[in-house]
Amino acid sequence: MTRDAIRPLPASSHGYNNVDDLDILSGLWEEALFARLPRDAPSELRDLVEDIENPRRVYAIHKASRRHNFQQLVQKYIVQLREGCGSEHCNISTCFTCRKRAAGQVPLRRYNPTSARIVATHLASQDNPENGLCPGLKTPKGPPAALNSLVFVPTHKSRLEAERALSTSPKPSSPNGRPVSPKSNGGVQSSSVRPRNGSVGSNSKGKDKPTTLPKDRNSPKPAFEVYEEPVSRDHRSFAANVFGTVAFKMLEWLTPAALEDMVQKTKGFREETDGARLQHPEPEQVEVKQQDAERSQGGALDVQPVARPVQTEKDKRDHKEDQLQRDTPPTMRSTTQRRNSNAKVRTSNGPKPKRQMSIDPYPQDSLADDQYSGLLKSPRGNSAPTDKGPRALKPTTSALSRPISQLSSIGYFDEVSLEKMPSLKAVDLKSRAIRGQTDGARSADSGSPNDNGARSGVSSERSVSNGSTGAADPDSELEYEGVLPQTISKLKPEIVDLFCDVMQEDGTAEEHLFEPPTITKFHTKKSAQGKQAKRRRHLARVSSPNLRLEWKLFVEQSLFYVLSDPGLLVKSFTEDGHLYDSQTVWYCMLRMTRVAPSLLFHSLWMAAGSLFAPPKSLLAPRSPTAKLFRNGESLSNHEAGCLLSICLHALVASAPLVTDSRQLHDMSRIRSHGLSLAGSGSVAQQPADLCLQYEDAFTDPFALRLARRLFTALTTRRYFDELNQANNPDEEHESDVLKPLFSQLDFLSMEAVYVLDFTFPDRALHETRVPILLLDWARAVMMTGWDGCPEVAGDGPFGGALALIEAMYKKRHDLLLGDGHFLAEYFAERMDTVNMPLAWLSHNPTRQRVHLLDYPYIFNPSSLVSYFRSINFSRMSHAYEESTVLHDRIDVIASRSTLTSHHKEVLADRLRAAASKYLILDIRRDHVLEDAFDQLWRREERELIRPLKVHLGENDGEEGFDSGGVQQEFFRMAIAEALNPEYGAFTVDERTRMAWFLPGSMEAEWKYELIGLLVSLAVYNGLTLPVTFPKALYRKLLGEPVTELHHIDDGWPELASGLTSLLEWDEKDGLVEDVFARTYEFSVSALGQHITREMKPPHQGGGEGSGEEEEEEWPQFAKTAGHAFVAAAPQDSNTLEDEAPLVTSANRNAYVSDYIRYLTDVSVRPQFEAFARGFRTCLMPKSLNLLNPTLLQSLVEGIQTIDISELKRYVRYIGWDSSHRTVKDFWSIVRKYDDTMKRKLLEFVTASDRIPVGGVKNVMFVLQRNGEEEGEKGRLPTSYTCYGTLLLPEYKDREVLRERLAMALENARGFGFA
């Protein structure tokens, strides 16, 4: 299991498991701003609108509840940081108890409240923050320490009387008509603030009714004031002037725990004030009672909504209790008890913030919290009293005041018995309906048929325009369905366009850093989709600000409702089980990321939690893994893949909108190095603005959090598949979870549903954009979560990102990606090139821990070659040291022993193989291959991996010091002789010069093994060979299949072209069997023999090279004279009775596959297997996993293209410089050489005609001055091949230099000391 597999709950569950959480949720349900369908919404939306009965699915409730939970989590971390858990065995590094025990006697500095809150906020913002809490953490019993400096002073009675007098006079207003809130003097006021009056306007018909009323007419007046005790501080101190301000202290004063304690302290003050207020009722209360009486007689009170003062929920509840005590009979008052506050934090006890707090995970929009705070109110909130009388107090169980019939199917109250919930009679539907009408968001177009009573305020446009409650606009005469919030049940591309256009036009879109900030429609709709949905602009829109808020609430609620539910999300972007095409999904996400990115990413993050629910097969009662998981909403792999693809497209949409594919590639290269800006020496140059836009997008916290969850879910789904396969090995298993994504990215696939029409350039650019940005996001997650260790967690976000890169690498040809797109230079630049590869050799990958070198395609070729050679050099050094130690011990034993000289010689001869420090080969020039075979035959592996020393031609008088050049010469000569077609072991194509095994060769298999050993020795010692093998050989050496035409096109280009024509032939121009006339046979000519065999399909259980195929073995020529074929081979083709069938259109695909298999495997299997055994002798099998076929080919063959200009850049000069006349003449002559002469020059200086892997910069080429030559018969140029030095005399002119240099290159042979 992954660390995130069990913890995330399904999208429909948020873990409200106790009465306190239900109390919080109930309070939010009473006060939340509910979204309703706006009045000018198009008619196309009404069919998709539905009511929300589950409070967890209401965005306003979710947002407030999440913020409250975050505050609670921060408070727990503060306690843990400052006080600790007190457990003796605590091992949580952030716990004060653990830190104190680890420090021992060393003084330990405790966090102050401010620093503790900063650290706690960071810890609570991480993924799975509950994991960092101590299991035994206890809630502090005492009040927060920050309250010790506060003094609560009761307000004098005369001041209360003065306030009552002031309450009857009009309050000052701002120039725009909004009430001015009272200010506080240096201290925190009581939990209630003076009410304020405001005026929206008078009735157009001049009815004699009050036009302005306080927002909360019965709110209690301040009963106390709060002051801070004066403390002495240094006013010159920066810390005291910043962290000692009231603003910082309020971070501690306004926490839920602090507010709860302040409520308890001021309880007596308010009771005293309430008693005084009962004796002296205020004029406002009398006016309210008159209005209640008028409403009870059936009259409709036209009340204009005004701004609501800032007021805590505790004061509202106390105020309701005060009024209840005045109006309730004594019998009822005696049986109703006041609910006591406990130590747990409740949101109902804290003030509703008017501004964005630092701990709010969502940006608070000033439009919703300030400008319209008085215009819109939840139907569950406080309002004028109704004809039903005062409401009863809530029971201590805090059950929602909802009918049981509406809650029985929600699934939220699973741990609360239904008997505790109120019955239908306890719900005052009429009063709530009336309260709902005062909310400006409850539009007349919401389609409700049940609200025919009086309407007030801004409940409809007609009450504002003409004051009539009976006249109605025929286009907006739609009635209420109730007081429940509404939402869209499915997002369609046209709805996404409508929502985004509305929010951009109204200016209610969220502020963000994504570029471009706004997106307009740039597609065309299909003809079958009908007309585009638009707002009904012909309606009179008097209260336009209120309508803007209606749209904002409805759009946010709809996006949250659909995007956070995995079922609705998949339903919105699929049709008949098939995903929309990639560009349509990307376009929808692009538009939504530019209007509500935080909401989008958070909602998708919630929906992605369902990816961790195990499939139904693992939850079966008989399944061995049933007890490991809890029951929950489970998704099939196809559904999970659709959800994963949609979320990944949202991440892609967050990147800057780049319209040039070259910029996409360059930015990907820049970010693969971990760079934010492209400097002067960067791999690519792009504008700084674009680089910063990329940085903003890929460091967005909400997007990164979503990416981490998606990648973690990928590894979890793979693990579920492994468990399912282990439990049910005989059943057919589901497809991989990434299959829907790759099917969507395959732009030739016909499974995708194309909804929107885009231009061809846009389609082509999108085909490049999505795979590249997916790789960029995977690298971003890896870089942000990497700790510098090459071993990483395989079941976390890092492992999931690697899994996505691996899957895309396997599909790179379908995704049109090259090997360079997968590079992550950031890691190679920060790892040790010597010790890290050696540690990787001993690493055993598991599901929990993987090594970066297990994914070699994220490293560049030069780094992989360095790692590969580090492994070989380490083995060579270890073998050298072992032999040196053994040699020294033998010398000591021989010197101290009493053995005779004869016995010492015998002992030394028997221990020569173990004590030799080098692998020494004495080679004659005329018998190079023979001497090599003789001296390498039956050598032990410990001898072969020692440093190589070659003595070439010393018996013929040559004098050469082997520092690399002699070895290069030896391998060049040996391989050239081994591959000579005259020996009958290999064939060489005359046009491509490619060497391949001769089918049925007469040479013994041990010779192929020794040739493979020669190649292995050269690679092991870092030398290149003058050979040219087809890439198919290197694929087979690395265990990769050879099944495609592009695998053989370099070795057999004409054959590949002919087979391609066969596959692409259109039978409109003739039948395949008539035009090509091919039989289902494989034919080859070897040693004058023409062998033909009918091709047979391989055995189902066998693989390539396994020897289990059904087809017969290819006939082999006799190894000695007088032997026939190992298997009798007819000279001609099959007889008439067994004539092979013709190749037709039906079997041509199978024919091509079988022909490639016979060409590269069946016909040369014995020869290749012997060669492969020798090749793997000196090389560790695991080290070969670092290489791909192209890189292995470069290691063996080097680079055949020689760039003289590049060589001139890296050449070194001794005795002169580049400005010398002879040096200029030399480069002028060499630049005009053809490829043959260039190779001869390089071979003359370095003993190899190939550039080693890594390029010319890895070639040692030194141009040294070797005296002056005045005569016409001067010395020829010479070279030190061991040191890559060309000794060039200074000739009198360019022609002499050209002649002498050409003569030296044409006749270079042998070694000697100059």
From TrEMBL:
Protein name: HECT-type E3 ubiquitin transferase
EC number(s) reported in the record: 2.3.2.26
Natural source organism: Podospora fimiseda
Gene3D superfamilies with a match to the protein in the record: Hect, E3 ligase catalytic domain, Hect, E3 ligase catalytic domains, Ubiquitin-protein ligase E3A, N-terminal zinc-binding domain (AZUL)
Pfam name, any one: HECT
Composition skew (Polar residues), residue ranges: 166-204, 326-350, 445-469
Annotated active site: C1282
Record carries keyword ATP-binding: no
Catalytic activity from the UniProt record: S-ubiquitinyl-[E2 ubiquitin-conjugating enzyme]-L-cysteine + [acceptor protein]-L-lysine = [E2 ubiquitin-conjugating enzyme]-L-cysteine + N(6)-ubiquitinyl-[acceptor protein]-L-lysine
Recorded GO MF terms: ligase activity; ubiquitin protein ligase activity
Region Disordered: start-end pairs: 160-222, 270-403, 435-479, 1093-1114
Compositionally biased intervals (Basic and acidic residues): 205-219, 270-295, 311-325
Segments forming domain HECT: 940-1314
GO biological-process terms attached to the record: protein polyubiquitination
UniProt keyword terms in alphabetical order: Ligase, Transferase, Ubl conjugation pathway
Record-linked SUPFAM superfamilies: Hect, E3 ligase catalytic domain
